Structures are given as structure tokens and as C-alpha cells.
Amino acid sequence: xxxxxxxxxxxxxxxxxxxxxxxxxxxxxxxxxxxDAGIEGDxxxxxxxxxxSSGRFIGQExxxxxxxxxxxxxxxxxxSIRVExxxxxxxxxxxxxxxxxxxxxxxxxxxxxxEKMTDVVGAEATNILASAADREWESFFGATFxxxxxxxxxxxxxKYGTTPEQLASVAVKNHYNGSLNPKAQFKRxxxxxxxxxxxxxxxxxHLLDCSPIxxxxxxxxxxPLDIAKKYTDKIVKIRASxxxxxxxxxxxxxxxxxxxxxxxxxxxxxxMADLQPKDIDLAxxxxxxxxxxxxxxxDLGFFERGEGGKATEExxxxxxxxxxINTSGGLKSKGHPVGATGVAQINEIVMxxxxxxxxxxxxxxxxxxxxxxxxxxGTAVVHILEVI
Length: 388
Ligand code: COA
Prior knowledge:
Bound molecules: coenzyme A
Number of helices: 14
Distance between the termini: 19 Å
Shape: globular
Strand content: 15-25%
Radius of gyration: 19 Å
Structural class: alpha/beta
Helix content: 25-40%
Largest sheet: 9 strands, mixed
CATH class of the largest domain: Alpha Beta
CATH superfamily of the largest domain: Thiolase/Chalcone synthase
Number of domains: 2
CATH architecture of the largest domain: 3-Layer(aba) Sandwich
């Protein structure tokens, strides 16, 4: 296997982008990444594009071909593959791109992710997202993702004493970080009281405990390490790319207080990188709901089980804390265009490792981790990156 580096990143602003089309977003993210890498379009060997449900959100399938056309690369006839794993589509596309370069099959690979979610009304977006749960046994009976994660939150609260204030402290931190990110959907700072006073969506999760419905796209360019050196001297190497799965349904799991697929993906990633949780300088985790971030920092081994809420409340995951989590604002504040999220997480870590994160820069960041989850945890992907 060859060593693989990220040589380019690009993303659009995230938000309700009613004046932008899906193809616009794909083109903008891809063009930024190509310019950032300093490559010519005709050097690209293949593309992997993460997308969850463009067919239902905007009536457009076949986005592999669409990405080639908007990039103006149709005459190259390169392979371009759409990858789907619900909210982990971007992370899984990254894993596929990594494997393609590591194996020696392709040299320069574009990994993208895009979703245009706000062209349907909210109830329809909820219904489309719920197709990533178990349709026969969960969503058919009315379970939604806020509902499923609310069950996890209640279980965590009962078992460990996690409090509504601790859940809210995740949202407060991530909105603060998002206020420092020009590309975030929500740039406003909020308080614990704001979260607790916001409308209840699925008890105990309030509106401000939830990630939003978002439009956006992100892209990265991968290359083998030896070729990467030709393009940039700020090389960010992929130390690990690990994927794990679990039951599609939440009710099929033995426990609700963690996401076992994320735990197993993390264990594999640490083994592959020969690193431990204490070696990680910062992480972008899948905070689709505040409870998800608390479970993530426990599954990743940053804190003991049951300690994630308390650690967040104490500021240990803030930008200047011992392990900064979601410096971008996370899904909660930066936004969650599902197919793009896993790739946008890589963008943030690469910016941080290159020292380009501006006001939200983590001091001396050298090793970063991304954690991207599909549905209630049927799929999880963990990447570890290091600047060399
Ligand atoms: N965080 C902060 N503010 C939010 C928000 C969120 N998650 N969602 C909406 N808002 C704001 C809107 O900007 C709007 O503000 P405004 O009145 O100042 O313009 C207001 O709240 C109402 O927005 P609206 O779009 O009517 O909200 P909604 O009630 O239709 O949807 C949720 C709110 C929480 C139900 C929706 O965002 C949601 O379903 N989130 C979860 C998405 C999800 O499940 N993703 C997959 C995870 S696995």
C-alpha cells in the first residue's frame, strides 16, 4: 500500500442556498480544491462523490457523471463513482478515494460530497433523512432521527446522569466556534438558556440540540505521498482510514449509550496509525445532535464513558481546551448537508494542520481526526491526518 496525502481542499458556504443549484455547489467546491492543489484538470484520474439522496431532495441521480461534466472533464472519460452511506456518504467516499490511491490504481483522485436539502419542505426533508433508518421497523412507524437520538440521550442521561445543561453546552461551544467560521450556516453565539428555552423537538432534544437542514458541497484532492511533494510543501498525510458497520436499526443494538461502529472504526484507525487517543490534537466529530458529540468523544477514547457531558461543560473540548472538538462549528453550527459533511470535516482538519484556520486556529495542531456517522450508527468512518 502507498502512503496517501491530501493536496487540495475546497468547500462552498453552508446554509439555505436557495439561489444556488446543486451543480453550482459541486463546481465551486471542486474548483476551489483544484486551485488549492495547483493541479490541472487533466491530471485527475478518478472521482468519488458522496451523496445521500439527491434523487429525492432535487430529483437528480447519477451524480458521478454530473461531477465530471461540471468540472469540464468529460473528454477524459475518467471513472467517477457516487458513494452512498447516508450521513457518512462523504466519509465513505474519502475511504474509497484513499483505497484507490493507496492501492496504486489511481494517482490523483478527487473526493467530493454534496447535498441540496432545502428545496423540499421540512417535513419532507425529515422523511427523506428517515430513509437512512430501518424503514420497515423504525421510520414506517414514525421514528425520525431526532426521535432516535432522543432515545440515546435519555438512556445516556439515565445511565450516567448526563444533564440537559451538559447537552446544551455542546451546542453553545459549537455555535461559538461557528461564529468564527465564515462558511458556517449559523454564525450566532447562543447561551445554555437559549438552548433550554428553544422549542422541544424530541424530548430531551430541543431545536438548538439539533443540526440543521443544509445545502453545501466540499471536495479534497488526494495523491500518493511522493507525487504530493511535487505540488505542495504543506503535506497532510492520511495516517489512517477506517470504516465499520453495525445494525441499520437502533433497536438491533445491545446498548444505546454509544455508537459501536464508531468505537470499532476508531480502534482500527488508532491501530493503523499506531497512535492513541492522547496523541490526537483536535477532532471534527459527527454532532448531528448534541448527544451524538458526547457519545463520539467517549467512543473515540478522549473521555471515559459517561464523562463526555461533564468534560464539555468544563470547557475541555473548547478551542483552547485539552482536546478541541468541532472547531469548524460542527454539524450543529457549520451545517449538515449530509453527503458533504464527511468531506467538509477533512477540509477543517487540513486547514487546522496547515495553520490556516484563522481566528479558530488550534495552537501547534499536528495530528487531527475526523469521525463521520451514517444514520443512528449503521456506518462510521474515522480518518487520522498528520502534517509532515
Ligand atoms: N439549529 C439552530 N437554528 C435552527 C435549526 C437548528 N438545527 N433549525 C432551524 N433553525 C432556525 C431557522 O434558521 C429558523 O430561524 P429564523 O426563524 O430566525 O429564520 C427557525 O429555527 C425555524 O426554522 P425551521 O426551518 O422552520 O425549523 P424546523 O422546525 O422546520 O426544523 C429541525 C428544525 C430541528 C426539526 C430541523 O433542523 C431538523 O430536522 N434537524 C435534524 C436534521 C437531521 O436529522 N439530520 C440528520 C441527522 S442523523
